[in-house]
Amino acid sequence: MSDTLYDVVILGSGPGGLQAAIHASRKKARTLMLGRIDNSSLYWAHVENYCCQIKISGEEILKKGRDQAESFGAEFRDEDVLAIEPDGKLFSLKLESGDTVRAKTVILATGSSRNKLGVPGEKELLGKGVSYCVDCDAGFYRNEVVAVAGCRSAAAGGAVALTNFASEVHLYCEELDVNEGLRRQLDETGVKVHEGVSIKEIRGENAVSSVLLSDGATQDVTGVFIELGAKGVLELTAMLGVQLDENMKYIEADKKQRTNVPGVYAAGDICGPPLQMAKAVGEGCVAGIEAATYAKKLEKDE
Question: What is the pTM of this model?
Answer without folding.
Answer: 0.75
